[in-house]
Amino acid sequence: MKKFVAIAGNIGVGKSTLVRLLCERLEWQPFYEPEAENP
Q1: CA 31, CA 2: separation in Å to the nearest integer?
Q2: What's the confidence (pLDDT) of residue 39?
Q3: Mapped to the 3 state alphabet, what secondary structure does the chain carry?
Q4: What is the C-alpha end-to-end distance of the chain, expressed in Å?
Q5: Ramachandran quadrant class, 31 (left: phi over 0; alpha: psi -120 to 50; beta: rest)
Q6: Interatomic CA distance for residues 33 and 27, integer angstroms
Q7: pLDDT tens-place string over residues 1-39
Q8: What is the pLDDT of residue 18?
Q9: Rg of the chain over CA atoms, in angstroms?
Q10: 12 lies in which domain range?
């Protein structure tokens, strides 16, 4: 079974940095929401 973790927060709070660090440490594969769909 696949498991997913969602990271949410305001602009500029470090969501992408948190995702990058988690993926490096836990050997996860990140999936980013397309920016075109997020106005």
Answers
A1: 13
A2: 60
A3: CCCCCCCCCCCCCCHHHHHHHHHHHHCCCCCCCCHHHCC
A4: 32
A5: beta
A6: 19
A7: 888 999 999 989 999 999 999 999 999 999 988 877 666
A8: 97
A9: 11
A10: 1-39
Task: Return the pLDDT at 29.
Answer: 94
Token reading at 8: 């949410």
Q: In the structure encoding, which two tokens stand for residue 12, read together?
A: 């500029």
Give CA angle at 29 (31, 24), nearest 5°.
120
Distance CA 33, CA 39 (A): 11
**Total tally of structural domains belonging to the chain:** 1
What is the pTM for the complete model shown? 0.74
Q: Report the distance separating Cα 9 and Cα 13, nearest Å.
A: 7
